[in-house]
Amino acid sequence: VSKKEKELMGRDNVEVVPNGADVDKFKLKNYKKGLNKKILFIGDFKYIQNQDSARWIIRNIWPLISANNKNVTLWIVGKNAVDRVGSYKREGIVLEDNPTSKTEDIFQQADILLAPIRVGGGTSLKILEAMASGLPVVTTLLGNEGIGAKDSEEIIVAEEPWEFSNKITDILWNEGRIKEIGKNARVFIEKNYKWEKITEKLNDVYERVVK
After folding, report:
1. Angle ∠(22,23,27) on CA atoms, nearest 5
2. By residue range, what is the domain housing residue 105?
C-alpha cells in the first residue's frame, strides 16, 4: 500500500508499512566493461500486469532502443513468459521460461531493470530487490510511487516510450553513471527498506495500538 492509496482510504488511523528487501541476499552488482548489454524485464507472466508491461515494452519501447543501440538484448525472464508473450517476440529479444538461476544471480547478469508499471499500486518487490543489487531501475511514476526514490539519482523515471529509450540509452553506455545510480539505489534500500527497518516501523505501530 502506498501513501497515495492511504489517502484514498480517507482515514487518519492508517499506517503504511511497505515491503522490504533482503539486502544481505542481494549483493552489490559488479559492473564489468563489455560490448554486449542486457536490459531485463522479469516477472511471473500468469499475472495480467506483467503481460501488459512486457507487450508494451516489445511494441513501443524496444523498437526505439534497438534502432539506436547495437549489441543490446531485451531479456524477458519468468514463468509463462514464452506462453503469454512469445507471439510478440522480435529480433534482439530473448525469452527465458522457468529460469534455473536465482533472482539475485539474474540481476548480476543484467545491466538495467526495465519496469514500466502501468497498472496496480503499492511497492514492487522486484524493483526493491533490483535496487538492493545495485541494478539501475527504469520505471514509471506509478512504479516509483510507493517507493519514493529520487529520480535520476536512485532510480530513473519515464512515462512515454521515447523517454524510456532516451534515458536507457543515456546510462547504458555510461559506465560511471550506471554505477553511480546503482550504488545510490543500494544505499537508498539499506536506509529505507532493509527488513530490520521495516520491522522497527511495524513494532512501533503495534506499540501505539496497544497503548
Report:
1. 120
2. 33-210
Residue 147 lies in a domain: yes
Q: Rounded distance, CA 128 to CA 134, Å?
A: 10
Q: Output the 3-class SS for 61-129.
A: HHHHHHHHCCCEEEEEECCCHHHHHHHHCCCCEEEECCCCCCHHHHHHHCCEEEECCCCCCCCCHHHHH
Global pTM?
0.87
* Contact predicate 133/29, CB 8 Å: yes
- Site of grid cell 527488513: 195
Residue 107 lies in a domain: yes
Q: How many domains does the chain have?
A: 1
- Residue 139: give its domain's CATH number: 3.40.50.2000
Distance CA 189, CA 138 (A): 16
CA distance 77 to 97: 6
The confidence band for 13, taking pLDDT boundaries of 50, 70 and 90, is low
Query: Among the listed ranges 3-17, 78-92, 96-110, which one has the minimum average pLDDT value?
Result: 3-17
